[in-house]
Design a protein that fits this description.
- The structure holds two protein chains of two kinds.
- By secondary structure, chain A is an all-alpha fold.
- In chain A, 70% of the residues lie in helices and 0% in strands.
- Chain A contains four helices and no strands.
- Chain A starts with 9 loop residues before the first helix and ends in an 8-residue tail after the last helix.
- Chain B is mostly helical.
- Classes of the chains: A mainly alpha, B mainly alpha.
- Chains A and B meet through α1 and α3 of A and α3 and α5 of B.
Amino acid sequence: MFTTNGGLYCGPDLLDRAVSFYGILITGVLACLVVGWVFPASKLREYVNKTSEFKVGVWFDWMVKLVVSIGLAFVVIYGGFIPDIKILLWWIPQMG
Amino acid sequence: MIIAWITLIILVIRGITLPGAIQGLNYYLSPDFSQLANLDLWFAALSQIAFTLSLGMASMYAYGSFMKQKGDVNNNALITGLGDGATSYFAGFAIFSVVGFLMQSLSIPVEKLVPPA
């Protein structure tokens, strides 16, 4: 299908957006939030500090919890997440 | 993997010796701090860093399964992050010196040649 003329949009454009946008970025945001808040990043930081030459301070926790999550979420929202949701739910006004 | 860096060094040296490369390098190296308020710039920079550092691609889990229990994580992370940034910065030299050469040989000002982000 990807080699036909009609399916040419499916191959690179659609799959690239699906994997690289929804797959990687949203997975990254969720992984950062889970590792930051649920499995607290301080546990990770203490284990890593025990076995390393450099020690990282408590700024690592706040980076994972806030900065990386908000940065990647900004990339998701600015890259067209809300128009995609609007297109995905086009059938809602039709039902009324 | 060292071949990649050797090729990059050869390209940078070839780029710098082109005539007119200095105009491109001036455009590259002069900072424009008013662009920090431009959201498009943040979008491009953040997506670039997320993709070159392989943030969501589960490659870290795969690489991590081969490390020793007492491996030195902080050292590796620092070298990876800073080395990636430095290689990108160095590659910009090769690219913008060729842009400068094009600027001179075709006599186009830089705003028409470099498309706005």
